Fold this sequence. Notes:
The protein is of the alpha+beta class. The protein has three helices and nine strands. It has an eight-stranded antiparallel beta barrel with strand order 1-2-3-4-5-6-7-8. Mean pLDDT is about 90; it is low at about 1-20.
Amino acid sequence: MTLLLKVLGAALCIFTVSSEVVPQADFNAQGMAGKWYLVGFATNAEWFVSRKASMKMGTAMFTPTADGDMEISYASLSSDGSCWRMNNFAKKADVPGKFTYTSRGNHNDMRMIEVKYDEYALTHTMKTKAGDDTVVTKLYGRGADLSADLLEKFRQFSLENGILPENIAFLPKNAECPAA
């Protein structure tokens, strides 16, 4: 029975990974400019299980370039008062709202699924490293608080993309890192 469940789970993941996730049709990179709060985070990555409880809300700065690429800088204040920071340069793809970048040995295919530029952004990223694919979905808000409807939309989207319910997190509010 356990083997059957593993095979069915793997088949579901393969089916989910192979389905095409389409970015928002009228995506506007300039509309993403500025600060966003990372409100929701979900993934099927193994590392997430052990780190989920300690994760807190951070911020992301999206800076579109003149060419349509996107600079993305993340910052999150750690419990010891230090700041965790990460910067990525995402190259635009042929499809508006689709970007690719490399980070920590992962090839990332990021898509802006649904964006209301003054309120929220829902993203889907397929990370590939050494032939292994991992799905990451994120919910960003222009403010730290989003409606229950948006939180549920994110939860449903994550489930539809093969993420287990226990791997969907709404991040607790956190003080912000000082400007770098």
